[in-house]
């Protein structure tokens, strides 16, 4: 979205509608936590991050003269976070193979529109395989996503 002055854009706001949905805040929060942090960080800091997020959300509600405890009590938010751990874990497992493609490979791919189209609409396995074989950081991130899945689903007795 663009804001213009004298028919010239002077401000842009990126709006991502690919996951546009009506969902509890915990869904986005858990997706962010599983996509952006590792297991060690979550073990050490998840409670602090939940409390920080909740406080910030409450401040936003209060800024609109709303009572956070009426809209989303803390215990309900905690329960919702626990519920959406699976969602966050699975989305990270799904997104990381593409999100973590090394920038240098992305740059060369985007120079060839047909390669991008093939990866998006046909078969991304050659790109994923190349990343796996050539980049330790990529392998580490994907292994972490798989380990998150195994840990969480074992804990929940789903495996």
UniProtKB/TrEMBL annotation:
Key word Electron transport present: no
InterPro entries: EcKL, Kinase-like_dom_sf
SUPFAM superfamilies, per database record: Protein kinase-like (PK-like)
UniProt keyword list: Kinase, Transferase
Keyword Amino-acid biosynthesis: no
Domain of life of the native organism: Eukaryota
GO terms assigned for molecular function: kinase activity
The protein, known as: Ecdysteroid kinase-like family
Lineage: Eukaryota, Metazoa, Ecdysozoa, Arthropoda, Hexapoda
């Amino acid at each position: 979205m663009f804001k213009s002055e004298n028919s010239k854009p002077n401000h842009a706001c990126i709006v991502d509608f690919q996951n546009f949905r009506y969902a509890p805040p915990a869904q986005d929060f858990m997706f962010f936590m599983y996509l952006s942090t590792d297991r060690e960080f979550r073990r050490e800091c998840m409670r602090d991050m939940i409390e920080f997020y909740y406080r910030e959300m409450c401040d936003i509600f209060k800024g609109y003269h709303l009572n956070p405890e009426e809209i989303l009590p803390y215990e309900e938010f905690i329960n919702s976070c626990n519920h959406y751990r699976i969602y966050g874990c699975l989305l990270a497992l799904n997104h990381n193979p593409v999100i973590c493609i090394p920038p240098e490979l992305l740059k060369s791919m985007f120079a060839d529109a047909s390669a991008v189209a093939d990866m998006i609409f046909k078969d991304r396995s050659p790109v994923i395989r190349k990343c796996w074989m050539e980049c330790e950081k990529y392998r580490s991130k994907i292994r972490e996503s798989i380990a998150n899945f195994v840990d969480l689903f074992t804990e929940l007795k789903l495996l």
